[in-house]
Amino acid sequence: MPKIMVSIAEENLTNIPRLVEDLRRAGMAVDDVLEALGTVTGSITTDAVENLMAVPGVQAVEWQRDDHRPTT
Q1: Looking at the 3D structure of the chain, how many domains does it have?
Q2: Does residue 71 fall inside a structural domain?
Q3: pLDDT value, residue 64
Q4: Which residue in 19, 37, 46, 54 is deepest, having the highest Cβ count within 10 Å?
Q5: Is pLDDT of 70 > 80?
Q6: What are the residue ranges of helices labelled H in 1-72?
């Protein structure tokens, strides 16, 4: 599944545990919760991304970029 990063709206930062549960119910496999940054990372199927945007308190959903730098 593609990796994503979810940004939490500032006014909802005190509700992160509830939001994480809502994200899981919307189909996100949560990898990490960065409370100080208001960010949740994880993965989701591409057809379920719209479900995350419908979660109250979600500000943005971004695809994580893979780092494909050549090794030297």
Answers
A1: 1
A2: no
A3: 84
A4: 19
A5: no
A6: 16-25, 49-53
**Could you tell me which of 47, 20, 22, 45 has the C-alpha nearest to residue 31?**
20
Those residues with Cβ within 8 angstroms of residue 54's Cβ, 6 or more apart along the chain or in another chain: 26
In this prediction, residue 65 has a pLDDT band, given cuts at 50, 70 and 90, of: confident
Q: List the structure tokens of 42.
A: 């994880």
Give tens-digit pLDDT for 16-34.
999 999 999 999 999 999 9
3-state secondary structure of 58: strand
Using DSSP's 3-state secondary structure scheme, residue 7 falls into strand
Cα end-to-end span (Å), the chain = 29
Separation CA 45–CA 56 (nearest Å)? 20
Q: Is residue 54 part of a domain?
A: yes
Query: Looking up tokens 């990796």, which residue turns up?
Result: 3
CATH number where 35 lies: 3.30.70.80
